[in-house]
Amino acid sequence: MWLTNSSVGRKVVMSVSGLFLVLFLTFHMSMNLVAVFSEDAYNMVCEFLGANWYAIAGTLVLAAGFVVHIVYAFWLTMQNRKARGNESYAVFEKPKNVEWASQNMLVLGIIVALFFVLHLAQFWFKMQFVELSGLESINPTPQDGAALISQTFANPLFAVLYLVWFVAIWFHLTHGFWSALQTLGWSNKIWFERWKCISNIFSTVIFLGFALVVVVFYVKYGLLG
């Protein structure tokens, strides 16, 4: 199958799974912003999603997309290094016109993945998983997402760690978004620079949205709580 047997096919899978994750980040950021304006409204969203069949199906699809993206990222990186051979060790100067994020996508991806595991442990496990498994002793109110946000971001350590995570996501998106569109053929000489500009703006909006939630809840429950 060309999606797995060819370099182009693997890049297509990488791009599609990446764009899928971009859509999820957009939804998740928008959902989190609700908590800034109304914690009750945010809890209503959490209750609506909860352990319903569509939320479970979405979680499984998201998990599959995330795993595929990571696996293909390592696969393509190892393939590129193998193709370069000894030449990969002979380059000491940074190539001109190559973004820092482009050269460090794998490292950024690993940072994002590690923090994602932390995020799952702090939120998904205490909310949807608890509701699914009935482990109320861990979290008696699994649908009270606002309480979990306030408890987490009131801690300055977690507030800083999450901001670092969002910076890594920003760098990853600034290159990954336009690169995915280019791989899928949605780019030409005119649109290449446009997509790069759009990617930077979009990534910044995502970063600011997530960061705003951290800062607001830290100030509200950490500094002033």
UniProtKB/TrEMBL annotation:
Position of the signal peptide: none
Taxonomy, superkingdom: Bacteria
Record InterPro entries: Cytochrome_b-558, SQR/QFR_C/D
Cellular component terms (Gene Ontology): membrane
Keyword set, alphabetical order: Membrane, Transmembrane, Transmembrane helix
Transmembrane segments: 12-31, 51-75, 105-125, 157-178, 198-219
Keyword Cell inner membrane: no
Name under which the protein is recorded: Succinate dehydrogenase / fumarate reductase cytochrome b subunit
Organism: Bacteroides luti
